[in-house]
Each structure stands twice: as C-alpha cells, then as structure tokens.
C-alpha cells in the first residue's frame, strides 16, 4: 500500500513538472497555493527515485522541497537517506546534518530516528545509534517498529551487549512474528548459550519463511552449528553441502573447514 501511494504521488508530480516546463507559473502557483502539500509530494517522489536508483532526480526534487520549507522533517530525513545511499565520504558527512535537522524539526518522527540510527550504525557510532533506535523501537503505532527493534538488537550485538540484544529481538518478534532477522540472531544467541532445542526451533522457523534455497552463508552456518549441537548429522551434512556449493569462498565455509574435526561443544 505504501509503495502504491508513493508511485501515485510520483506520477502526480511528474505531471506537474511537465506543466512547469511549459509554463513555470503553474508550478509556482501550486507551491504558493499549498506549500505543505508540494513539499510532501516532492518528498514522496524523491523516495521513489531513490528506490529506483535515480539519485540525481531525487536530489533535484528534494532541493525544491527544502527551498519551499527548509525545516520540513520528512524532506530533511529523505535528503539524509539520499546522501547516505550515494555513499561518498563527503555525502556521508553531510547526511548527518540532515538527519539531525529532521529530528530537531519533529522529535516524534520515528522514521527519521530509525533512519538516523541505521546511518549511525553504518558509521560505527553504535552508542549514538542505540539512543535513536530506542526511541523508534518504543514508538507505539510506528509501522516499522519491528524493523527499528531489529536494528537496535543488531547494534547491541556490535556493542557486545548480548543480553540486551536477546531481549530486543524477542520484542521484535512480539511486534512482528515473521521477523526473520530476529529469528536468526536469536537462534545463534541461544545456540551459544547451549539452549540448542529452542535454537533449532527458531532456525527452522526462519527457514520456513525465507526458504531452504534462499539462505545466505551466515544463515547456513548458523544452521550447521545448530544441527550439529542437536546431533542431526544428516541435516548438518545437507547444509554443509549447500554452503560448499553456493559459498565456497565464504568466511563461513572456511570456518567450517577449520572446525570440522574438533570436538568442542560449541563451534564459534
């Protein structure tokens, strides 16, 4: 539904832009008549441009939106997302200012806090990321709350705060029972705690959702260790074969080769 709304808004604004090329007064009149709506539509159009990889077009419409209202929270947030997506050192540095302005303009903007938190995670500013993601993850009614909690759990793992990560991933599953990130991360956490029965249940639930053939190297490595801990040699061998066939150069497969003859209770 959200994507359809964005596409519709983008189509409407495309028509407006065409008219503006023919007669600039029409576009100016639209902005003058309802500047708030103009900013909203342009921000939605920028989101669609970013989704399709047209970053230059996204930058142009966001510049127009911010020229109309430099304090608009969503437009500032989207500019931060755009600069983060582009990824150069200069633009990554600029993105911080747009995210902070978005939150300053609207401290209750949970989406801005979630996006800023993921940016801070990328920049390895984990303690700051926790602050932003905590707010987003505790905002009732925010439709991406489960995603914010997933991001928060991953950040806790980076900080070595496993107990907080475990608690947060469980919260994410309460919000969205199909949170595959939380299933996989909890499976590994519980495996390392040697709670291997529940670890297996979570891993199997993860596989049911993503599909046996759609697992990455990390997921297969979790599954291999969980199967071994549950003395499921056949299941383990199936996953080893899949890891070898699909990801022979992965760190996970190299780790398996190194550990395959050890007798340690828990493979790290």
TrEMBL record:
Keyword line: Repeat, Signal, TPR repeat
On whether Membrane is a keyword of this UniProt record, the answer is no
List, alphabetically, the Pfam families matched: TPR_16, TPR_17, TPR_8
Renumbered to this chain, the signal peptide range is 1-20
TPR repeats span: 39-72, 146-179
Q: Any keyword Signal?
A: yes
InterPro entries in alphabetical order: CellSynth/LPSAsmb/PSIAsmb, Pilus_4_PilW, TPR-like_helical_dom_sf, TPR_rpt
Q: Which NCBIfam families match?
A: type_IV_pilW
| Name of the featured protein | Type IV pilus biogenesis/stability protein PilW
Q: Which source organism?
A: Acinetobacter shaoyimingii
Name the gene that codes for it.
Answer: pilW
